[in-house]
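Page 47, continued from p. 46.
Same chain as before, 358 aa.
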Amino acid sequence: MTTDSKIWVSELNARPEIRSAFPRATVRFYDTTLRDGEQTVGVVLSPQQKLEIARKLDELGLSRIEAGFPRVSPDDVEAIQLMQRANIKAELWGFSRAVKGDIEELVRLGLHASVIEAPTSDIKLKAYGISRDDVLRRVIEAISFAKQNGITAAFFAVDGTRTELEFLKKTYLAALDAGATEVVVVDTMGACGPEAAEFLVRDVCDWVGPKTPVHWHGHNDFGMATACAVAAVRGGASWIQGTINGMGERAGNADIGEIALALRCLYDVPIQFDLKKVREVSAVVSRAAEYTLEAWKPLVGDNLFMRESGAVASQFHIPERWPASFISPRPSSRTPPNWSMLSAALCWGKRAGWTALI
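Result:
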């Protein structure tokens, strides 16, 4: 059970040998729904839709919103300008390749912070036809130019989890020497398991030192995005990047709502994220992107507190036995947690017993 006793989970999560591995500092979220999320096949968001989503993201208490990739999209330029006039509390960040023209566009728009990306894995370098020396030169030049123009830069090592470690270290340190203030550990292809994510993040934290914030950016190709993000926090990441509903290309990005839920409710890690509002934001995003979520999806699915199976439904009438899923309410209440905005319900179906009629 969490410290405020609102969520019923296994007491094993609170064992010192498990809980002590997690930091007590607040974990913050960097939302990339409007950029990486829009890369979902078939999804196109208008500037007005992006503004609506940004306002909803702001209500979640998110620290940063990646507003778009303005160099490649006039619509992103318009969306960014709308957000800049909307008095959004979260920091608005841009997205840029390690290319001078991309950064010049950020300067023109008056953005003061940006992720700056460059590929680092040999397979990516081969695909782009560039060498390691080319990458280092581009990173140094781009980040130096950003710093000269007052732009806070977080270096984003594309396909970092498939990069030879010594070169990855060399690139991160070159980026920091050039003026980057933060680094992002990037699992572009969702190719890491949780153990590998924790290992790499811990190594990166050692390389860059305790004063440099480390982000984790993961994808869900093996269904491990939430687990990897939790492991990254255990390894020392203080920022998690992801999207609402986990939207994104291929199998999607890490779902920041699920990650926030796991960190807060399983491990009692402080987060800057309002779980009470995530269902509303989820609905706005899925409606704008025109896709339907699974009814059984964690945190935002419609079936979270519905029961049909007779064996499970029988517990509904016994308060101390009610919890049948890890986000069920505490035993003293049959009402779901107030952040769920759902009602508990029993359904009559193929596997229902007479208990469902009582």
